[in-house]
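Structure tokens please, single chain.
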Amino acid sequence: MGGYCGYLANMGGLAAGADAAYIFEEPFDIRDLQSNVEHLTEKMKTTIQRGLVLRNESCSVNYTTDFIYQLYSEEGKGVFDCRKNVLGHMQQGGAPSPFDRNFGTKISAKAMEWITGKLKGSLGAGKKFVNDDSICVLGISKRDLLFQPVAELRKETDFEHRIPKHQWWLKLRPLMKILAKYKASYDVSDSGKLEPLVRHHQHHHTPHGEPAAI
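Here you go.
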């Protein structure tokens, strides 16, 4: 339901402890699928007898849900079996939650306050008051409700796929690997890429001939 945006698959995978979540923003190939299958196979041989793989519907034209299901089923023979489930319109939810109602009230009040301020500012001008700042989208940016001009958002938007050019949540992708017991570390730099886990041991020399702490 999110189109090309992998936010639902990514965050759903983090919340549910998924072994993998395939999304459009992070291209993958057969080597990645092979690595995920091998990891899941090895995990199933331990005390953890369950696994979960999520896929955004638009993540790949050729690596479809059926293809990934058949791949895992074939490679997991004798170790685990697979079931597939396409959520579809179930993702739209049901009745609005208390959070939804509260949030809707807040943004409605903020929108009316903004419109009122613009109207008061244009009184006496004798003409329509329209500029880039008066054509905005109200949304959340870094925990704040902000009015962002459409002219600025246009530069940051991939109109073909209807997603932002820079997704803030992509930096959380490595956490899924860590939670799924992959040998990976969390890179907090701007690159946000997975790096091999390397343990550095630092020796501290202590006085009086005491053994060094590692």
